[in-house]
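Two proteins, back to back. First:
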Amino acid sequence: MKISCFIGAILLSLSTARAQGTVSAKSVAVRINTLPLFEAKTPGRTANPEAAKGRIIWRETFVDNQRGWKTGKTKTGTFTLTSGGYQIQTEKKEIDAASLVTTPMDLNGSDFTLESTIESTGDNPPSAGIMVGGEVDQYYVFQINNFSKFIVQYVQDKKPINPEDFVFNQFIDKNINKLKITKTGGIIDFYINDEKIQTRRVQPLASQQIGLIGAGRNATFKHVLLIGSSK
């Protein structure tokens, strides 16, 4: 399956970084990466008001499975729709599994906000995240892990551009975390609990799909919200 290939090859570097769980002594509480694609701005509570004015494409609360999230057990993990939640579990916490659905909007041609609230069922932050753009090529992965670290990766030609390690972030909560991706014009921003932690220039997205990704057994997705507006 495509997801199996994605998990086995694309996110191998992410899994290795998670398994190590180390932070340099020089690491800061919040890191905003400076990439050739874009120089990040100063972090802070700068929620995007323009995206908030957009139209709600859909609000997922997992009371049913009309949108077709993956369920059951596969080679990569176990996917369970619970009462008001969605769980992605894997046997090993360093192995990721993903579930994707197709949205009704053109993600390349529209501004949008994608967010999900993730609840930990253990004593550590959940190892989970959100994806936009598909599962094979030209997509973003935004993920946190059990060690209060995050990573943002753009995948092209089946490999991450500018591969990075997970980086510690003080805004990650051990119980509940809201991850958000906001695309406005040629800029894409990433938020943890409404704190902007990274800004990049937008790269092409291969599809209208969005996804949820998890590892281990302590993450429950409580909702997914997609807001969009035409340029």
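And the second protein:
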Amino acid sequence: MKVKNDWHKRFADADCTLHRRQCLQWLGLSCMVPLYARAGGALRVDLLLLEGASINFVLPLVRLIGEAAGIEWQIKYVPFARMLQTVKGGQALALGVSKSPEREQSLAFSDSVTSGYVWLVTRRNNVFAYRAPDDLRGHAMCTGLGMTLGAEFERLRAEGLRVERFSGRLSQGLAMLSADRCDVLVVTSHLEAERLERALQKHENADVVVMRTPLTNKALNFSVCQGHALAMLLPRINSAIDQQRNAIKMLVSQAA
């Protein structure tokens, strides 16, 4: 449904600010009209996924939740920087923006859909012992743009840990690792170390080893601009996550 009034452009283009909350107070659910419309009984909602995400895992996952929530996802694959900017602008939901104290000031998050591991990957000819973050001292690390790894990691960065950033495409990170741009590549995955290592070996020039101790665990959540009309979908999404919990566990266990 196309709305001719120009308030919706201001509503969608700005960051998560006070006038958006005022719009919700003044207009209630009518604020939702330009953001999604009904399609065959389901709500049509824009959803951003990270460019390079595992399609064989993520697409069945969001379909499970969409079916239970009565939502027809309009999926777009984007780089992380664009994902974060678009979500903060209230133009879509996203799956793949991790929580941090800074982000929780402007974004609202769903319940955890599932949890994954943050693994360290290194070249087979450059394996070193890793048991705790302090073992990364003296090594260079490649991580995707926008990845947050917690207080210990930030402490190491402040103390001189060299970090190289890439767009988020796994192939780019593996190429940087192969070219000796870094000693370890940070990879987030729902797979256990052995299964991830086998999957990575299928990439070109990827003679790599996955460290058996994860750097940390991360929850996978939907995110949306706080105070935006789209945030009204979170209770519906949370209910769908809870309803599909067993199916999600089965999907994770079967993922290649």
